[in-house]
């Protein structure tokens, strides 16, 4: 094939160029109609029956497409919410799930000539193509007095029904089943851009149900925030936790009983949450006006206390926050109810049974005041080992395995020179309505020691919440939110007795959360490592940017949203909470409501 070269004269055929007897006219032989639509009054386009118009019980059989007029095409995005009216006043609320150009006229534009024309052209004549939006019907909306009710799509709209962008906040909230009130998470968004309406403020706040009118508050059905490094998960977590500490937010502990403020205990491996005591120096007057307009709690939470575990010679420096600091130690007596706390590595069933027997015997002899050092000396007794072996209660090899694991615990973990955590609970200092109790572990260099501290204290809280005969009434009688950052380090699946005991304990806590007014607030960058039984109890999943495919699959959000997760910017999130709303995109607050970050 010869080189076409510069084919300026070949852009039109002979009839278009004209001959000597038929010179080409200066202008086209006909005028094109003006089709530029403003979209302000006439909507975005109309439903197209030529592409199929069908509502079906099987969503895959539904066929609903709208022709988008040329003037509106640049503004349309995947995920945009649209409405189409029915005769009689009802409205179909739907979402754009696909966009495509289709040829309006029969032609072959996959040719060299068409390509060269396009390369020389300044643009595309939109009127030469059909632009179709594939729609997913979400709900049928009806006016019921001052309220808007929703039901599943059960009617097919008429052909050529004009569709418009949803721009009414009440209409959008009803269509997506977003509660009017509750705990604020952020603003509804599409593709990272906040959804705008004609109202003031123009944004749509996304909230999580927090009242008893339509069931239990979702805080007691548990929350997971998942996001990679730099995604903004700690920023988002602080904003949410601050709302649960709002002075006007209260929960009844018993049916018909008095309402009390939430107590929050936050385990903090990176030492970031005690900063919630302080105001955010980066917040300006416009931020505060916005927060006040939306009724948000903001500013430092005065009743924030850092309860610092004393472990060995580790020292805690806290020049990045002004919260009160209270040192505590884990007493060895806590091991009596949770034997797995004193094993440095995995135990099998026989070893765990032996440990349990030995602890019972030890505490029976030494009482609650028995220490870890005394227990090590108690085990280092050849006569005891021989007695248990000869009686057939504990095999010699099993006894030695238990001894090795107990002696392998990190130094300086139990019974240090500080008040015990149990004493702080008994004196109603650690768990108190309206208090944020932060347990930092960043200063503990030994990861096993840090893990043991977190599991010991969290197990104390869970055990007392679930107990029918609690030792510490302050825990039982207070609505409690247990926050755990880097939750994958503490609630992972593993083939050991310790892991099974921990997972079993927190699974039961999650199941009983609604009844006991106990909520779990888990934060992680590795959701795939959180044990399945615990994960299944989480009702509200907030997903920020994640780059790991296994992590994205693990959060179990709809496939249409999974594909967006790796591309989300800082603060962008997907919220999947089936009992609260349809799955949606949300844009978090750009400025943290409390202090965040270190200078």
TrEMBL record:
Task: Please provide an example of a Pfam family that matches this protein in its UniProt record.
Answer: DUF87
Its domain of life?
Answer: Archaea
Region of interest called Disordered, as start-end residue ranges on this chain: 1-43
Segments forming domain Helicase HerA central: 217-283
Give the Acidic residues compositional bias ranges: 16-30
The record's InterPro entries line, in alphabetical order, gives: HerA_central, P-loop_NTPase, T4SS_component
Please name the PANTHER family in this protein's record: SLR6007 PROTEIN, UNCHARACTERIZED PROTEIN YJGR-RELATED
Q: State the protein's name.
A: Helicase HerA central domain-containing protein
Q: Which organism is it from?
A: Halobacterium salinarum
């Amino acid at each position: 094939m010869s080189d076409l070269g510069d084919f300026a004269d070949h852009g039109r055929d002979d009839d278009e160029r004209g001959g000597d007897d038929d010179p080409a006219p200066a202008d086209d032989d006909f005028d094109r109609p003006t089709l530029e639509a403003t979209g302000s009054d006439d909507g975005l386009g109309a439903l197209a029956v030529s592409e199929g118009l069908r509502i079906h019980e099987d969503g895959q059989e539904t066929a609903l497409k709208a022709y988008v007029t040329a003037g509106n095409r640049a503004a349309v995005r995947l995920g945009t919410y649209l409405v189409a009216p029915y005769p009689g006043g009802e409205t179909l609320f739907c979402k754009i799930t696909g966009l495509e150009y289709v040829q309006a006229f029969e032609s072959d534009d996959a040719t060299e000539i068409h390509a060269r024309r396009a390369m020389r052209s300044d643009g595309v004549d939109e009127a030469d193509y059909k632009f179709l939006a594939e729609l997913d019907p979400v709900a049928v909306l009806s006016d019921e007095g001052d309220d808007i009710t929703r039901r599943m799509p059960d009617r097919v709209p008429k052909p050529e029904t004009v569709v418009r962008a949803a721009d009414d906040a009440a209409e959008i909230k009803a269509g997506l089943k977003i509660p009017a009130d509750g705990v604020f998470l952020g603003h509804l968004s599409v593709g990272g851009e906040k959804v705008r309406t004609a109202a003031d403020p123009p944004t749509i706040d996304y909230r999580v149900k927090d009242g008893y009118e339509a069931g239990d508050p979702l805080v007691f059905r548990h929350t997971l925030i998942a996001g990679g490094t730099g995604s903004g998960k700690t920023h988002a977590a602080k904003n949410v936790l601050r709302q649960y500490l709002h002075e006007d937010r209260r929960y009844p502990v018993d049916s018909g009983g008095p309402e009390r403020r939430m107590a929050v205990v936050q385990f903090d491996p990176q030492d970031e949450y005690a900063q919630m005591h302080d105001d955010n120096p980066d917040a300006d007057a416009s931020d505060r006006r916005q927060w006040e307009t939306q009724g948000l709690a903001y500013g430092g939470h005065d009743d924030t206390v850092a309860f610092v575990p004393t472990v060995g010679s580790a020292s805690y420096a806290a020049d990045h926050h002004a919260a009160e600091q209270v040192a505590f130690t884990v007493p060895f007596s806590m091991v009596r109810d949770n034997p797995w706390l004193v094993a440095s590595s995995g135990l099998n069933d026989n070893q765990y049974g032996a440990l349990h027997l030995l602890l019972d015997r030890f505490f029976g002899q030494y009482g609650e005041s028995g220490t870890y050092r005394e227990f090590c000396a108690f085990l280092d007794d050849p006569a005891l080992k021989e007695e248990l072996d000869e009686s057939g209660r504990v095999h010699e090899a099993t006894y030695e395995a238990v001894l090795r694991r107990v002696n392998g615990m990190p130094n300086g973990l139990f019974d240090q020179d500080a008040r015990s955590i149990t004493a702080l609970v008994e004196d109603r200092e650690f768990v108190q309505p309206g208090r944020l109790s932060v347990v930092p572990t960043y200063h503990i260099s030994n990861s096993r020691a840090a893990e043991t501290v977190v599991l010991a204290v969290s197990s104390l809280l869970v055990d007392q919440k679930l107990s029918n005969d609690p030792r510490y009434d302050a825990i039982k009688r207070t609505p409690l939110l247990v926050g755990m950052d880097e939750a994958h380090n503490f609630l992972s699946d593993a083939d050991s007795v310790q892991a099974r005991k921990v997972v079993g304990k927190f699974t039961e806590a999650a199941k009983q959360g609604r009844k006991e007014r106990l909520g779990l607030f888990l934060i992680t960058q590795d959701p795939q490592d959180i044990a399945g039984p615990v994960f299944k109890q989480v009702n509200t999943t907030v997903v920020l940017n994640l780059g790991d495919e296994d992590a994205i699959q693990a959060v179990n959000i709809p496939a249409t949203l999974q594909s967006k997760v790796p591309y989300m910017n800082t603060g962008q999130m997907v919220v999947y909470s089936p009992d609260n709303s349809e799955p949606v995109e949300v844009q978090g607050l750009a400025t943290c409501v409390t202090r965040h970050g270190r200078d």
